[in-house]
Structures are given as structure tokens and as C-alpha cells.
Amino acid sequence: MTSNLELNRLISLTFLKGIGPILAKSMIHRFGSAEAVFQAKEHELLNIDGLGPTHISVIKQVSESLFLRAETEIEYCEKHNINIIPFSSADYPIRLKQLIDSPVLIYVKGNAQLNHPRTVSIVGTRKPSVQSLQMVQQIVEQLQTCGIQIISGMAYGIDIQAHKSALQNGLETIGVMAHGLDQIYPSNHRQTVEEMLHKNGSIISEMPIKTALHPDLFPRRNRIVAGMSDALIVVESKLTGGSMATAHIAHSYDREVFAIPSHPYKSPENGCNALIKRNIAHLIEDGMDLIRCMKWSHALKEVPTKQIELFPNLNEDEKNLLHILTGKKLHIDELLNYSDMPLHRLTLGLLELELKGILQVLPGKYYQRIS
């Protein structure tokens, strides 16, 4: 459990200009804690790859006012039921934890699972056609048969339609914000957010309270939308814009990307067609295409979904490995890194899970949960 002092220092690190999540996590890994980063000597900081004199100057010039600002942040979040989850926490989304540029911490309001067995992000243009809005409704209705969690960015158009469709079909949905959770943007979506929070949904952000909206924050939001998903669907998009950027980020994260094709005569600059032609996205025409491609047919509602807690005979190592493998296939070297287990314990745990029919061994020493 993160102490109040350590949480304060983690938040303080995120306030520092020029210190992004990669550098921040690298320093924490090197010195053992965020508090130790602020206590480190200049010559020790110089040993961190990517950390230069300008960064070190920013760290060493930190005053007590910065820590007081972080304390105000903690107090606000406690008062407004916002959880602050550091990347070292067991509650931190495992899909994000696998990424080098994942946030140092995230702010979460609501009760949605952050490690849902199956997650799909749906993105697209802010000015969609009626047909595209109907397509989102149809896709989400079909995904409902697998109990899939829907993630999007709370924007106008395709995003908000994805959230609304999830609510209509009784699915958990997570809205990723590009600002602090003290505000809702667009403000027109406040009622949808309230319904999400009432029905086991969540809104999340890596941005602190009172962060002013800025165009630079939307790409940061998009990488979380991509990173938290097993699969990402682009429903309608131009050749450039946030949806296309999110699709490319998801592809770089080794997530499965899907796109709804459009007739070239109607949309000569259609981003979905471009994603398909460039082999970045799979062509799908409905939600069942995605379910088949992701091999999620076993999770259709007539077959009960297997959760970790339904396996009473698993030891702690086996439970930990299943948790790490949620929604992702991983190489044995990656499992060694994420699990912090010695090799002999790791291989024994993997063998036991395989023998119990819970784990699938793939070519090249990759492993994947069957359920």
C-alpha cells in the first residue's frame, strides 16, 4: 500500500515540467521510491538515462509549495470519491502497466473493473453519419453477448454513442478524460457521465485536478484509450485526426485494430479504408466478426465466463500469472519481468495452468489465457 507521503511525492513528480511518465518511472525504479527521487544527489540523478541538467534543475528547485499542492490534490480527491492509483499498485490496470509510457498514476471515479476480462475501445469522428451511429449501436448490442467492457474518450459523435450504447445494453463502460476529474468536457455529456457512475461505469484520467483543457492533452488521453483495450474499433474517420492516431497507437501497442469499411465513392478520404489497406486494421462488418477474430466465442452468455475467483485450487503464483495475462498474450521473458518470479517458479506455475486447461502455450514461448 502506498503511504500518504509517497503518494504526495508521486503526484508532485507529475507536476514537474519536462518529466514525463517514462523518466519518472525510470527514476522511481532506480531509487526505489518517489520520495527518494527528491532526496537524490545531483550526481546520482545524472546516472539516469535521458535525464539532463535541465531536468535535474527542475527536480532540485522543488519547494514546499509543490508538496502542499499535491496535498490539496489528495484532499480534494478524498472529498469527491476519486481514487488515485499509482502504477505500482495491484489495482492499476494491468494492460497499462505493460506499456513503457503508461501514466505514473491515474485518477478514477466510479466502480468499473480496471482489469476486465475483455475490453473493446470504440472511436471515430465527432461528426458521424446516422449510419455510423446505428453501426455503433449494433456492434455494442452484439458485443453484449460476451459481456465486454466498452472504453472510449467521451468526445462528441462516435465516442459518446459508444458509452450510451454500452449503458443501454447493461455493459460496463469507461470514459477516458483529457483533463482533471473536477470537470466534464463536453459539458453536454454530464448526464451520461452521471448515469455511467450510477451503473458501475467509471471516468478516468492521468491529469490532476484543475488541469486546463489543451490540444496537447488529447493524444495523451488517446494512448490510454488504446492501451486499456484488447481490441480497438474505428467506426468512421477521416484520414487524419484523433481516431486515426488512436488506431496507430493501439497497433504499436500490439492491440488488435478493427475498422468498418466505407464505399470509396461516398468517402474518398476514408480513414477506415486506409487502415485496412495498410494492414493496420482488420475489416469487420459487425460485432460478431470481432468476436470470432478475438476468439471470444467461448464467452458467449450461454457459457459462463470463467473468472480467477472461480478456480479455488489455484495458488498465489498461478493467480498472479492469470492476472498478468488478462487480455494479453505475453512472451515468457515478459512474464519474468512483470511477475518478479524466479524462472523455476514461473515455469512451474505456467505448467500447472496449462495442465488445468486455463492457459494456452503458443509458438515462440508465448502464453495466453483460454478464459
Radius of gyration: 21 Å
Mean pLDDT figure: 90
**How are helices and strands ordered from N to C?**
HHHHHHEHEEHEHEHEHEHEHEHHEHHEE
Question: What is the 3D form?
Answer: globular
Low-confidence stretches: 302-309
| Top CATH class of the largest domain | Alpha Beta
How much of the polypeptide forms β-strand, as a percent range? 5-15%
CATH-defined fold name of the largest domain: Rossmann fold
State the end-to-end distance: 29 Å
Question: Main beta sheet, described?
Answer: 9 strands, mixed
Count of extended strands:
12
Task: Supply the number of helical segments.
Answer: 17
Q: How many domain regions?
A: 3
Describe the structure.
The chain is α/β, with parallel strands linked by helices. The chain folds into three domains: about 5-80, 5' to 3' exonuclease, C-terminal subdomain (DNA polymerase, domain 1), CATH 1.10.150.20; about 120-300, Rossmann fold; about 310-370, Winged helix-like DNA-binding domain superfamily/Winged helix DNA-binding domain (Arc Repressor Mutant, subunit A), CATH 1.10.10. Helix content is about 45%, strand content about 15%. Helix 8 runs parallel beside helix 9 (about 160-170), helix 11 crosses helix 12 and helix 15 (about 315-325) crosses helix 17.
Quick structural overview:
The protein is an alpha/beta fold and 371 residues long.
SSE layout and pairing:
Elements: H1 4-15, H2 21-31, H3 34-39, H4 42-45, H5 53-60, H6 64-79, E1 83-86, H7 94-97, E2 105-110, E3 119-123, H8 130-143, E4 149-152, H9 158-168, E5 173-176, H10 190-198, E6 202-205, H11 217-227, E7 231-234, H12 242-252, E8 256-259, H13 271-277, E9 282-283, H14 287-293, H15 316-324, E10 330-331, H16 332-339, H17 343-355, E11 359-362, E12 366-369
Parallel strand pairs: 3-4, 3-7, 4-5, 5-6, 7-8, 8-9
Antiparallel strand pairs: 1-2, 2-6, 10-12, 11-12
